[in-house]
Amino acid sequence: MSINWEPLRSIIDSNERFILSSHVRPDADALGSELALAKLLENQGRSVQIVNPSATPANLEFLVPEGRVFKMGDGFTKEEVFDTDVHIIVDTSAWKQLNDVGRVFKESEAVKVVIDHHASADDLGAIEFKDPTSEATGALIFQMAEALGYELDFDMANALFCAIATDTGWFRFPSTTASTMHIIGRLVELGAVPHQLYHNLYEQSTLSRVRLAGCALNRVELQCEGQLAYTVVEWDDFVQTGARPVDTENLVNECMRIAGVKAAFIAVQQLNSQVKFSLRSRPGIDVSKVAEVFGGGGHKQASGTVLSEPLKKAVDKVLVEMGKLFPESGE
């Protein structure tokens, strides 16, 4: 799917001040896209601030220069977000994912832009540059720069490499194409070092995270004749291991390692008594439909949602919907 980026060039050329934002609990695609876009805009002489609804996760702090990314209400006020010409949302099209930033975005009189690759979407009342077939929002930022003739540099290459590599599961997911590898090759030419970035992204676990993973793996269960795997993380697990909620990132993928498993989910109990679900599947099984039942969304093979229910009740509800993906199993 080809995007016409020329309207974005017009927005960049005719405005001076930009705010960039993304979703709660920003991942590497969100942060990498924001950082690369911010640098691109600044290279055009624009003033840019990055303001997110959540703080940068500790495991991704290596990507973010000090003082570059603010959390809404913590170092950056609502009034300061209003005081801009253009507000760009990257890597989400869902109000639920924007929290306080979403409320400001809705009320703002600034030009509103969305750059995103998720299929699930709300109408944010913005000018949209979207491609649900794209492997990552970072890939869209690269394509935009290439289409409009903006130069990329070393910092942007690092940020975009992390964005694309993580959202493709280090190029394991079906979304990886020849175009993906063309982009990655160009980013390496610009100075991105794959082995160092892999080390920073995946080989910095704390002992607490490893112990938390042990708790989750010990609880893995199979349903639907072995085609569905799931596990849970209770709040007490964080207390006992000293781990943090961000340490559950990618744990759901461990369930997908089991032979015969075609879909999986992890349920993570939050301090506020909500339960966060991450859903994964193989090609041909659309877990975004399950996420959307509960107000969430994402991709066909990777989606998420949050339920305000006790842990067991929430898990039971999601199990019912996930089971519908395997009607032939009789469960």
Characterization of this structure:
With 331 residues, the protein is an alpha/beta fold. It folds into 2 domains: 196 residues, inorganic pyrophosphatase (n-terminal core); 122 residues, Diaminopimelate Epimerase, Chain A, domain 1. Helices cover 38% and strands 19% of the residues. The chain contains 13 helices and 13 strands. The strands form 2 sheets. The chain has a 7-stranded parallel β-sheet with strand order 4-3-2-1-5-6-7. It has a 6-stranded mixed β-sheet with strand order 8-9-10-11-13-12, with helices on both faces. Helix 2 packs parallel to helix 5, helix 2 packs antiparallel against helix 6 and helix 6 runs antiparallel to helix 7. The longest helix has 16 residues. It is globular and about 60 Å long. The model has no long low-confidence stretch (mean pLDDT 94).
Element pattern in H and E: HEHEEEHEHEEHHHHHEEHHEEHEEH
The count of strands amounts to 13
What's the alpha carbon Rg, rounded to whole Å?
20 Å
Shape: globular
How many separate structural domains?
A: 2
Give short descriptive properties of this protein:
single chain, 331 residues, alpha/beta, inorganic pyrophosphatase (n-terminal core), Diaminopimelate Epimerase, Chain A, domain 1, 2 domains, 7-stranded parallel sheet, 6-stranded mixed sheet, 13 strands, 19% strand
Helices and strands in order, then pairings?
Layout: H1 6-13, E1 17-21, H2 28-43, E2 47-52, E3 69-72, E4 75-76, H3 78-82, E5 86-90, H4 99-107, E6 111-116, E7 127-130, H5 137-148, H6 154-167, H7 178-189, H8 194-202, H9 207-218, E8 221-223, E9 228-233, H10 235-241, H11 252-255, E10 263-269, E11 275-281, H12 288-293, E12 297-298, E13 302-307, H13 311-323
Parallel strand pairs: 1-2, 1-5, 2-3, 3-4, 5-6, 6-7, 9-10
Antiparallel strand pairs: 8-9, 10-11, 11-13, 12-13
Helix pairs in contact: 2-5, 2-6, 5-6, 6-7, 6-8
